[in-house]
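Internal ticket - ligand job 276, zinc ion:
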Amino acid sequence: MNNDVFRVKFWGTRGSIPVSGSEFQRYGGNTSCIEVRCGEHRLIFDAGSGLRQAGDALSAEGITDFDVIFTHSHYDHIIGLPYFAPIYNPTMNVRLWSGHLAGIMTTREIVKQFMRPPWFPVEPDICKACLGFRDFTSGDVLSPREGITIRTDSLNHPGGCIGYRIEWAGKVLALIYDTEHEAGILDPAVLGLIEGADLVVYDCTYTEDEMPRRFGYGHSTWQHGVKLAAAGKIGQLALFHHAPSRTDDEIDHFEKLAKKRFAGTFAARDGQIIDL
Ligand SMILES: [Zn+2]
Ligand SMILES: [Zn+2]
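stdout (C-alpha cells):
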C-alpha cells in the first residue's frame, strides 16, 4: 500500500434514518459514516448506522487504532456507536472527538448520556477498549496523527455541527454536512473549508423546490452544492446525506442534473471508495 494513500470509503450516505427496500439498493440505506485512510492511519467521521460494518471490516483487517470524529450528535450520526465492535475489544484503542457542544457538554458526557439505560441495555463502562475522549472548539486545528491536519469551523445546523477540512500528503478532503444555506449566499465558513479541495462531501438532503417547506431543518441542496463547488474551485463534489425517502432513481436523476452544472459531481453510495 502506497504510504501516501488518501482514500475515502463511504460506509453510510443516507441522512436522518437508515432505510431498506428494493428502491434503495444501489445507493444504500446506512446513515453517515465515512472512513478516511491517510497512509497507515484510519479516521472515521461520524458513527451513523454504517459504522457497524466499518468496524467489522476494519477489525478483520487487523486495525487496532481508530479515531472516530463526530460532526455532531444527532441520532443519524451516532446510532452506530453501540454496535461498533472494536469498543468492546480490549486490544483496541479508540479515540472519540467532538467540538459542536464545546463548553456545553464533553465528548465523554455525550457518549455516556446516549449509551445507557433506558435507551441502551448497558453503560459505556462495559466497553473494554482503551477509550479516549477528545474535546475541541470550532476553529481549532486538529492533528490527530502525524502529518494529518484537520481544520474545523461551524456549520449552520440546529444544535451546532462541525465542518472539516482534512489535509494529508498535499491533498484535501472537506466534509460539509449537516448544514443549511441561505438563498443566494455562499457561507464564508464553508468556502474557507472547501477552497481548492480535491473532494467535497456536501449535504444534499433537499432540492431547492423543497427548501421553502424545510427552513430551519439544517440541510442544503445539490443546487447550492454545485454553486459552492464552482466558487471553491474544487475537484469533485459528492452529493451526500440523501433524504430517507429518496429512491435510487431520484438520486440518479439529481446526479445527472448536477453533473451538467458541475462536471465533477457524483452521488455518493454506500460502499463506494474514492482515492484522492
Ligand atoms: Zn444528519
Ligand atoms: Zn443533524
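Auto-summary: The helical segments are 51-60, 107-114, 188-194, 222-231, 248-261. Residues 5 and 39 are 5 Å apart (CA to CA).
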